[in-house]
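Same chain as my last thread, 224 residues:
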Amino acid sequence: MDADTLTYAVGDIHGCADLLDALLDKIEAHAAGRPRRLVFLGDYIDRGADSARVIETLRRLQWRDEGGVTCLMGNHEAMLLKTLHERGALDLWLRNGGCDTLHSFDVDGPEYLPGDVLDWIEALPTLHQDTQRWYVHAGFRPEAEVPDPDEDARLWIREPFLSEERDYGRHVVHGHTPLSRGQPDVRAFRTNLDTGAVYGGALTAAVFGLSAAKAVDFLQVRAR
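reply #2:
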């Protein structure tokens, strides 16, 4: 990675395709031709109106720049996959916005979603790292080894991760827990980027350089 490469980490999108398009425009303007990497923290689907277009956009970004775009799995992607393998999982997913995803794809059930979309979701990693940071959807168990090997924790944890101030060796960049103020939560050892886009808050990207663990800037877009 070049010394002047910027990393843009993007919080929970939840089907807000218009906000994603606007934020990507802001990122390109901010990068101004400098090398850049994109890291998306999961929860691309459910609750918002256009999960299908969000996934289409992310897959197109990866196709154009396979080495420069990382998409992590969120708990909502995991819930969707579970409906295909476990009895009783469908009701939980539908109650948490899955019906909006089905409507977006114009299908009646998860088994009718396009196979290439399901394959893409199933292949999503739950962790990304660079020299300064861990990127994960939800967080780590404070008592676990670093990085936490438990994928359920990476996808689902809130407490005690949110309340315990632990140094994980690198700054933890995460989403998953929506922030009612619409602003990122920056702590000593972690930064939460879920600023509640689907609830009328903002879609946020944190801008990271190589010389410091914490963000050097934040970019946001809000629904009009």
